[in-house]
Amino acid sequence: MWNGYRRWKAGIVPVLLSSASSLIVLNAEDSGLWRVGVVLVVALGLAYVTEEIVWNLKRGGRPCPNCGEKTHLNSFRIRNTCVHCGGQI
């Protein structure tokens, strides 16, 4: 389940961020579309923090999308390679 979620997240988050950015930059402040952009940014931030909390509560590490082995990552740190297979996480 989590591997599917991580693959889905990798495709949809850049689209949502670029949409939110264009909504915020191209529309007047406090307009309806500007607020939609702000809501998108806040929702993505909350989703990231929620994901970090879930991974910490599971205490099992995140599965690598390439080899499937559990990889222990520190929260709020950027690591882009698996310690087992060396593939991109």
Write the layout of secondary structure elements.
Layout: H1 2-26, H2 32-58, E1 62-63, E2 70-71
Antiparallel strand pairs: 1-2
Describe the model.
This protein is mainly α and 89 residues long. Helices cover 58% and strands 4% of the residues. It has 2 helices and 2 strands; from the N terminus they run ααββ. It has a two-stranded antiparallel sheet with strand order 1-2. The two termini are 16 Å apart.
Mean pLDDT: 83
Gyration radius, in Å? 16 Å
Residues in β-strands, percent: under 5%
Q: What's the total number of strands?
A: 2
Unreliable spans are none
Oligomer: single chain
Q: Report the structural category.
A: mainly alpha
* Principal-axes shape call: elongated
Termini separation comes to: 16 Å
Biggest sheet strand order reads 1-2
User: How many H/I helical runs?
Assistant: 2
Into which percent range does the helicity of residues fall?
A: 55-70%
Order of helices and strands: HHEE
The biggest beta sheet reads: 2 strands, antiparallel
Record keyword descriptors for this entry.
2 strands, 58% helix, two-stranded antiparallel sheet, 89 residues, 4% strand, 2 helices, mainly alpha
Short description:
With 89 residues, the protein is mostly helical. The chain is built from 2 helices and 2 strands, in the order ααββ. It has helices at residues 2-26, 32-58, and strands spanning 62-63, 70-71.
